[in-house]
Design goal:
Length: 436
């Protein structure tokens, strides 16, 4: 069976907070939670069940694309999948994160992504008697690409003379690929075939030595809000979708939430698995400035459990009603809720107070609102007003706001969108001014 040490996961140590200093630490948005700990918050999500079910039943290999907001809990769920006993009985799970690809991740290309998978297989292969010659094959492949496309002779000479220097030059060259001519791209394609062949042979040898199929999970590909990040998403999941599904082993890719409704998306529906935010109030409440929270609602219970697992006695540290308002501010996203609570603790500590009061939460509300305000100009005001007014369904031109988490996607039978809680009064104020 899979062991956490085998996965090389690093989980944060958490002890339930008894004061606001500890609350501040426990709600650091980047904390990594052990799926087997008391701090793991289970989500009864149909799409996650379906993904796990289809992996366990698959006889060959599965290529899957997991949509979801950043901060919705995808990483924790994927790590939990890697530790599932039934998955581990069938698969050798390999977990990669784009955050470890370096600063060049924003320039990621399909060949660079495959190289990262190959390098990880070489690393993991040392534990499973994979022939060391595969590392040399990847190096030869990389040197050949550098030699073919790098124009400076001095750089090519240096890349050819030092071990692993080819990889540095290869990564440094990624930003220029978007400007390649058609002829250059066509020249690369046969080399991609060679790279796929190396990966497929590695996967087969790992299967022969372990008796298990290979499952590669590539996390964090969906992150980033800049134009360069959106270009990267387009490059990987649209222009080079065909290459991403060529390896003869199972791969799960995380992709941006907005790809779910992207016009002309090349990813078939049967390869996609959506992971929406937790709906913390009913859709009929979306036009309220203070949506009613139902203590019996499953989504609300999840967020309360998330908070109460990290605070020994929440009522002693948070004034009445403040935690509910922080849940509204978080929008059903774990990371955004953690961010709001941490900021509220900071505001109270700044006052040398022992409890979070309504005034502290108001400061949080305004701070987060100001984070979004630079995005809202021109046609954006109309677009966001349309989100506020819509009953259900999609809104044209909403992609960048979903990516920035100014708009959140919910699903409870129907798919619906809502503005973040902090933006509703602001958007109505702007539209009222424009109508005068």
């Amino acid at each position: 069976m899979c062991q956490k040490d085998d996965m090389h996961f690093e989980f944060s140590q958490i002890t339930p907070a008894t004061n606001l200093d500890q609350v501040y630490d426990n709600f650091d948005p980047i904390l990594s939670v052990d799926p087997d700990s008391d701090f793991y918050i289970s989500r009864d999500d149909q799409e996650l069940h379906k993904l796990s079910f289809e992996l366990k039943r698959n006889k060959t290999h599965l290529h899957a694309f997991l949509y979801g907001h950043r901060g919705s809990g995808k990483t924790t769920e994927l790590q939990k999948l890697c530790l599932d006993d039934e998955i581990c009985a069938q698969y050798l799970p390999i977990f990669l994160t784009a955050q470890n690809f370096g600063a060049e991740a924003v320039n990621l290309t399909h060949d660079a992504l495959l190289i990262q998978i190959g390098l990880k297989l070489v690393e993991i292969g040392k534990e499973h008697k994979l022939k060391p010659s595969y590392g040399k094959e990847l190096e030869i492949w990389g040197r050949d690409v550098v030699d073919t496309f790098l124009k400076k002779d001095t750089a090519k000479t240096e890349a050819g003379s030092k071990a692993n220097v080819w990889l540095l030059y290869f990564k440094a060259h990624l930003s220029t690929q978007r400007d390649w001519t058609r002829e250059e791209k066509q020249t690369l394609e046969p080399k991609i075939e060679d790279l796929l062949d190396i990966l497929n042979r590695m996967a087969q040898e790992l299967k022969n030595s372990t008796g298990k199929k290979l499952l590669v999970i590539v996390d964090d590909l969906e992150k980033g809000e800049s134009d360069a990040h959106r270009s990267m998403h387009e490059r990987l999941f649209q222009e080079n979708y065909d290459t991403l599904v060529r390896p003869r082993f199972s791969i799960i890719y995380t992709i941006p939430i907005y790809f779910r409704a992207l016009a002309g998306s090349r990813i078939p529906n049967d390869q996609t698995y959506a992971f929406s935010a937790i709906h913390i109030y009913k859709r009929k409440e979306k036009q309220s400035f203070s949506p009613a929270l139902d203590p019996a609602d499953p989504g609300y219970k999840i967020m309360r459990t998330f908070i109460e697992s990290r605070i020994e006695n929440p009522e002693a540290l948070f004034a009445e009603g403040t935690l509910d308002e922080l849940i509204r501010i978080g929008g059903g996203l774990f990371r955004e809720t953690a961010r709001a609570i941490q900021n509220a603790a900071y505001q109270a500590l700044r006052r040398n107070a022992a409890t979070v009061e309504t005034a502290d939460v108001t400061e949080v509300f305004n701070d987060i609102k100001k984070d979004f305000q630079p995005l809202i100009r021109g046609e954006a005001v109309k677009t966001l007003k349309a989100v506020y007014e819509s009953e259900q369904g999609w809104i044209e031109g909403i992609e960048s706001f979903l990516q920035a988490r100014a708009v959140v996607e919910y699903e409870n039978g129907d798919l619906w969108l809502d503005l973040r809680h902090v933006l509703k009064p602001y958007i109505l104020e702007l539209t009222a001014e424009n109508e005068e």
